Amino acid sequence: MPYEKMREYVESLFNVFNMINQNESVKKDRRFQIIALVIFNYVRKMAKDNDVDLRTVEIKKPINLMPVFEYISHNNIQLYDFNTIHLEDVDVTRNEDLERYVLTHIYYITQKAKADAAKKGQI
């Protein structure tokens, strides 16, 4: 059964990419630049596959992550554990592995951003 909220999912992903891409520390860190690019390419593919025009996506703060978590649950995606992951665990030629890799990064980045905001009293 297909996930029914694909537009909301793509919008959430695009908003996460936008948050990452606008972060000053990302602009200084080559690794984060590459992660942002990988996320963007995934978002662009998902938008194309689901007829979502990224030019019409509204930039929102705070980002609604519920569609992302629902998508992960709906598709029974097991996120990687970055503490134990090895290069050979990810086969970038497999769409499933690439999606899992991207969603794991999104999860870790957004949860870190949430924790940082909570420390600053912004949540």
Secondary structure: elements and pairs:
Elements: H1 6-22, H2 24-28, H3 30-49, H4 66-74, H5 95-119
Q: Could you describe the 3D structure shown?
A:
The chain has five helices and no strands. With 123 residues, it is mostly helical. α1 packs antiparallel against α3 (30-49), α1 packs across α4 and α3 (30-49) crosses α5. The model has no long low-confidence stretch (mean pLDDT 87).
Structure in a nutshell:
This protein is mainly α and 123 residues long.
Feature tags:
mainly alpha; 5 helices; 123 residues; 62% helix
Query: Taking all residues together, what is the mean pLDDT?
Result: 87
Radius of gyration: 14 Å
Estimated structural class: mainly alpha
Strand proportion, as a percent range, falls in under 5%
Q: For the record, give the distance between the C-alpha atoms at the N and C termini, rounded to a whole number.
A: 35 Å
**Low-confidence runs (pLDDT<50, min 5 residues)?**
none
**Helix and strand sequence:** HHHHH
Number of helices: 5
Shape: globular
Largest sheet: none
Please tally the β strands and state the result.
0
